[in-house]
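quick one: S-adenosylmethionine bound model?
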Amino acid sequence: MAQPLQNNIPAIRAFFDQLAGHWDATVSPRHGERLERILRRLPIAAGERVLDVGCGTGILFPMLAKRVGETGCIASVDLSHAMLLKTSTRIAGVMPRPASLLLEADITLSPFRKGVFDWVFCNSCFPHFEDQRGACDVMAGLLCPGGRLVICHSESREAINALHRSVGGIVGGHELPDDGTFRTMVRRAGLVLESLEDREDAFLLIARA
Ligand SMILES: C[S@@+](CC[C@H](N)C(=O)[O-])C[C@H]1O[C@@H](n2cnc3c(N)ncnc32)[C@H](O)[C@@H]1O
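yep, here:
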C-alpha cells in the first residue's frame, strides 16, 4: 500500500519565509542571466496568460512582462508570504505592467481555474513538491489547449540536487527526478514532451498540452 504523504508544507513555507529577505543577494547573478537566456528560446507572445509557480521574489516577472506586455496577464503563486511581499515590490517597478495577480497558496491544491494559462512556469520549485506527480498533474491541468509547462533551473540537475543535500534540513531530500520519471509524469499528465535538457547552465523541460 502507498505510504501517505507527510504534510511538510508549513515547514517549507517557514524555510522560504526566513530566506526571503536575503534571497536576491544570495542567488548568483547568473541565475537571472540564465533564466533570461531560457526565456529567449520560448515563443511567449503579447497578450498571453502566464503562471509563475513558486515565484519567490518575482525574478521572472520583469522578463515575462516585457514579453506578454500590457495586454497579457501574469499570475504569481508562492507558499511564502515573505517571498510574495518581495514580488509585490518588484512588480511595482515594472512598466508597462501586465494584469497581475499574487496568490499565497500551495500550487498542489490547484488554486486556479483549469485550462486558462498559455504558459505555466515552474522555475526552481519542482524539487520542493512532496507529491511531484500530483504537482505535474495540477500544472498540466491549468494549461489551455496548446499551452506549455516549463520546468526550469539555472543549473544542472546534479548541481541542484547536490545543493539541497548540502543545505539539508527540510530541503535535504528535495531532488529533481531522473529523465525517465519526468517522461512518465509528463505523459501521464496528458502532455507531450517537447524538450528535456540537462546542462551545466540549465535544466529545462518543456511540455505541451
Ligand atoms: C528555490 S525558491 C525559487 C524562487 C524563484 N522561482 C527563483 O527562481 O528565484 C522556491 C520557491 O517555491 C515556493 N514553493 C515551494 N513549494 C511550493 C508549493 N507547493 N506551492 C507554491 N510555492 C511553493 C517556495 O516558497 C519558494 O519561494
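Helices lie at 9-19, 23-26, 29-40, 61-68, 81-92, 132-141, 157-167, 179-188.
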